[in-house]
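Is this the right way to post structure tokens for a design question? Let me know if I should format differently. Anyway, here goes:
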């Protein structure tokens, strides 16, 4: 890695492929369609790795992302973000060339979609199963009925079913809490399916968070999984007990620019504009922005949590280290940092390099 001179996101392609294959096999074992979320990697080249395992349907989080992947050969895409009615013209253009699914959670967006959709579009109703971010509360069947009535006004719209993101699993305090949140979401979706399946016999249920997709074993009644983070994983997932350190495919490689012996601190070129501001609580109760890997005698060593990325400003990162490791790290060295949240770190960087030296450009931000 001597050619690296600034903060660089490195991904291990083989680990990514192993993660993809594991999730594909799990979906097959539970008779689920895997529609992976591509917001984690946002790269056409990484998307090609999924095709090796037979993936042909994907999830994205913006119209821009849908356009990018459609231009790279993906023709069955779910836009898993509440419909932005200001982008209807672009949505119609997309739906003219690919199979497109969108999300609704309110009457206002449903009315605009029914009035302006000029091409066939699949529609999922977003259900809030406890995350409390977006979606229709599972018990609000009156609102669901009113939206379905609106959709009937336009024959080009097809109600596909109910979709949820059990995002509160990311803040779980134990794997048992992940199991509990997942099962609760499962019951809520199945109750809705029981209510509506006679009128809509082809309707489906779609779930999509990496923690439950990775470790849960009950998907009774579910048709589709949409996890995304699993391709890279990160410290957040490891902290949840969802993956092993060896499953994490991403590292930020950063130059050491200064040392402060009085504080046992190492300063790296790598700050909030590279990592984002996501944190975990370290064993000492303080914020942790990443864990540290150093090279010693051509061997990679993961330092314990007494050595961690403790502070970020715009371009600076400050690593707290023990006196022993302080002596082992020198100005001009490169250190590897396992990020807390790989999705945001990748998004901040905009490009990646594989451990084999292959440059991977991510989608443009405009």
């Amino acid at each position: 890695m001597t050619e690296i001179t600034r903060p660089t996101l490195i991904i291990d392609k083989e680990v990514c492929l192993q993660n993809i294959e594991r999730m594909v096999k799990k979906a097959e074992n539970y008779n689920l369609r895997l529609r992976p979320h591509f917001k984690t990697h946002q790269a056409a080249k990484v998307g090609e790795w999924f095709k090796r395992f037979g993936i042909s349907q994907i999830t994205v989080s913006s119209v821009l992302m849908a356009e990018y992947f459609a231009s790279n050969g993906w023709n069955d895409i779910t836009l898993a973000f509440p419909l932005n009615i200001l982008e209807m013209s672009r949505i119609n253009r997309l739906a003219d060339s690919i199979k497109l699914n969108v999300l609704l959670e309110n009457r206002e967006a449903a009315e605009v979609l029914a009035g302006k959709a000029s091409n066939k579009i699949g529609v999922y109703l977003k259900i809030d199963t406890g995350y409390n971010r977006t979606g229709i509360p599972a018990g609000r069947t009156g609102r669901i009925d009113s939206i379905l009535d609106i959709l009937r006004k336009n024959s080009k719209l097809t109600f596909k079913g109910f979709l949820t993101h059990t995002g509160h699993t990311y803040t779980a305090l134990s794997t048992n809490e992940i199991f509990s949140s997942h099962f609760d979401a499962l019951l809520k979706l199945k109750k809705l399916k029981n209510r509506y399946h006679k009128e809509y016999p082809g309707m489906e249920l779609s779930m999509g968070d990496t923690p439950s997709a990775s470790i849960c074993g009950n998907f009774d009644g579910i048709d589709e999984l949409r996890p995304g983070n699993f391709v890279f994983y990160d410290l957040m997932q490891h902290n949840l007990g969802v993956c092993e350190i060896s499953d994490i495919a991403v590292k930020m490689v950063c130059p050491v620019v200064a040392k402060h012996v009085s504080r046992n601190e190492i300063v790296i070129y790598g700050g909030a504009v590279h990592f984002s501001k996501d944190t975990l609580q370290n064993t000492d109760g303080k914020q942790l922005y990443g864990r540290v890997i150093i090279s010693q005698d051509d061997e990679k060593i993961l330092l314990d949590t007494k050595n961690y990325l403790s502070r970020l400003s715009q371009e600076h990162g400050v690593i707290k280290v023990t006196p022993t490791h302080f002596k082992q790290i020198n100005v001009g060295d490169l250190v590897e940092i396992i990020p807390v949240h790989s999705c945001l770190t990748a998004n901040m960087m905009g490009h990646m390099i594989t451990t084999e030296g292959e440059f991977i450009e991510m989608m443009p931000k405009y």
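Format looks fine. Someone answered above. Worth noting: Residues 245-361 form a domain with the Lyase, Ornithine Decarboxylase; Chain A, domain 1 fold (CATH 2.40.37.20). The radius of gyration is 22 Å.
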